[in-house]
Specification:
The complex is a heterodimer. By secondary structure, chain A is mostly helical. Chain A has four helices and no strands. Chain A is elongated and about 60 Å long. The model of chain A has no long low-confidence stretch (mean pLDDT about 85). Chain B is about 75% helix and about 0% strand. The chains are: A mainly alpha, B mainly alpha.
Chain lengths: ~110, ~170
């Protein structure tokens, strides 16, 4: 099999993940786009494992590690999203601007007197 | 194009096509389900690249567990089941430009480095449970143990974050 096939698929999946992270508004969907990027990395690792016929199976073992880390990441990330939703009543990233400097500057004159 | 290449191209097409729907579908729950399709197609790609054990782990962890957790989170955050408001057109245009640039850079680098290279799948030891397990527990055992600690830490962190502290408990402190 030509190496180009898995590499092109993984490059496209990674770019889709980048698009999703930048364009989505819902925090859960941003995490899903991150999962797409991690999956693309896994495909690359498996492809190069086969390409170099790695006797240590480094690529496949690292893919297993990436899957594990992705599971830990999505568990923690969703716990944080749920906590934010409980505190603020929204998972919309555009409306979570409590640390936004511009919002602070706009609100400061009212609080000053 | 050989048979394996054709199968891989079809699976890759499914993975990328459903990936497009994951990041563009206005229905949030549908996006989660398309993610399952994309990751399952990717597991098929792993199978074709002789990573048999990794493929089944992918099906178990991603398609089985992660998607269920994501769907739970979508429903717990009261995501609308109908179409939801998309982000502004300007932001999507910027995101598409950045993503296209990323794809361009990645494909150019891969073209420069690995154009015309061929994977000899017959020479590769199939990564079944024996081969992958042997490599995992003979060579990669220390990172494996470190990862188990990481998983434990993530588990404790998730429980701590999602534990409900009532006003009664707060006043007792």
């Amino acid at each position: 099999m030509r190496l180009a096939f898995p590499l092109v698929v993984s490059a496209l999946l990674f770019s889709l993940g980048v698009y999703g992270v930048l364009a989505r508004r819902n925090a859960v969907l941003v995490l899903m786009a991150v999962e797409l990027m991690l999956a693309a990395v896994g495909l690359n690792l498996v492809a190069f494992d086969a390409y170099w016929a790695d006797a240590l199976h480094g690529g496949q073992v690292l893919t297993l590690f990436v899957i594990t880390i992705a599971a830990a990441e999505i568990g923690l990330g969703l716990a944080i999203v749920l906590l934010v939703f409980r505190e603020r009543g929204t998972a919309d990233l555009d409306r979570l601007d409590a640390l936004d400097e511009r919002a602070e500057v706009a609100a400061a004159p009212e609080a000053a007197p | 194009m050989t048979g394996v290449e054709t199968a891989f191209a079809l699976l890759g097409l499914v993975a990328v096509g459903s990936g497009v729907l994951v990041v563009t579908s206005p229905q949030l729950v549908h996006a989660g389900l398309w993610l399952a399709v994309s990751l399952a197609a990717l597991a098929g790609c792993y199978l074709l690249l002789t990573a048999e054990f990794v493929a089944w782990v992918q099906v178990l962890i991603y398609v089985g567990a992660v998607i269920v957790v994501v769907l739970f989170a979508l429903m717990l955050t009261r995501a609308p089941t109908g179409p939801s408001a998309e982000s502004s057109v300007a932001r999507r245009a910027v995101a598409a430009a950045v993503a296209t640039a990323t794809a361009g850079v990645l494909l150019a680098v891969l073209q420069a480095g690995f154009a015309g290279e061929v994977v000899d799948l017959d020479a590769v030891e199939v990564g079944g449970a024996t081969a992958t397990g042997g490599a995992l527990f003979r060579i990669w055992v220390l990172p494996f143990e470190v990862l188990s600690v990481l998983l434990l830490a993530a588990l404790v962190g998730a429980i701590t974050l999602s534990r409900r502290t009532t006003d009664h408990e707060e006043s007792e402190r």
